[in-house]
Amino acid sequence: MLNEIDLETGKLRDIKNIVVRRASDMRGFFSNSEALEKLIESGDPIIYEVFEWKYSSSPGNLSYAVTVLRSGDVGGEFYMTKGHYHEKEEMGELYICLRGRGLLLMQNREGDVKWSEMKRGNIAYVPPGYAHRSINVGDEEFIFLAVYPSDAGHNYGDIKEKGFRKLVMKKGDGYEVVDNEKY
Ligand code: S6P
Ligand code: ZN
């Protein structure tokens, strides 16, 4: 029950599950599929890893995970997580940034879309009903801890089909949030 996190690196002492997402796992999520295929051919790099801790999946339990999101872009769109609605959409989530610079992009079914800038020490709340995606807008790893109901589940299908309403693109040394024409 007692775990330990290195607040500098996000490394957890006890881990129950590791998810590794390479470029080839991200087909359908980045807007420029040609640029993604080139990246896959050039070595299929890791985009992000998720280190999960869970006690039990039964209702009432909480789980948590550290995500390490690498720095880079696919055709100008910053490296990001797939993003998901929770299967149980009434369930929210808490994000705590440990390292790097990121954005937490959120949208609900009613058309509301918002984003929070994330740097070390920021805590962002994902309300029930909001799909959420993390984007690394910095030049080092973006690392955060997420805490969520163990039975919340992930629904990636709707995001794979339509994406988010907004894309986060490179602009000079920074970023810009633009409309997703394909949404
Ligand atoms: C789980 C939580 C995070 C993400 C992780 C990867 O509810 O939101 O742990 O799973 O950041 O993102 P994704 O969209 O690939 O699950
Ligand atoms: Zn989630």
Strand arrangement, major sheet = 1-2-3-11-6-9
Question: How is the quaternary structure best described?
Answer: single chain
Number of extended strands: 13
Mean pLDDT: 98
Strand content: 35-45%
String of helices and strands: EHEEEEEEEEEEHEE
Cα(first) to Cα(last) distance is: 42 Å
Briefly note the structural class of the backbone: mainly beta
Biggest β-sheet: count, sense, barrel? Answer: 6 strands, antiparallel
Going by CATH, what is the homologous superfamily?
Jelly Rolls
CATH architecture identity: Sandwich
Question: What is the 3D form?
Answer: globular
Supply Rg: 16 Å
Helix content: under 10%
Which compounds are bound in this model? D-sorbitol-6-phosphate, zinc ion
Domain count: the total is: 1
Low-pLDDT runs:
none
CATH topology: Jelly Rolls
Molecular structure report:
It is a single chain. A six-stranded antiparallel sheet has the order 1-2-3-11-6-9, with no helix packed on it. The chain has a three-stranded antiparallel sheet with strand order 8-7-10, with no helix packed on it. It has helices at residues 33-41, 157-162; strands at residues 17-22, 46-54, 62-69, 73-74, 77-78, 93-99, 101-108, 113-119, 123-126, 130-136, 142-149, 166-171, 174-179. The chain is mainly β. It is globular. The longest helix is centred in the N-terminal third of the chain and has 9 residues, at 33-41. Bound molecules: D-sorbitol-6-phosphate and zinc ion. D-sorbitol-6-phosphate binds at residues 50, 65, 67, 81-84, 93, 132, 134, 146, 148, 152, 154.
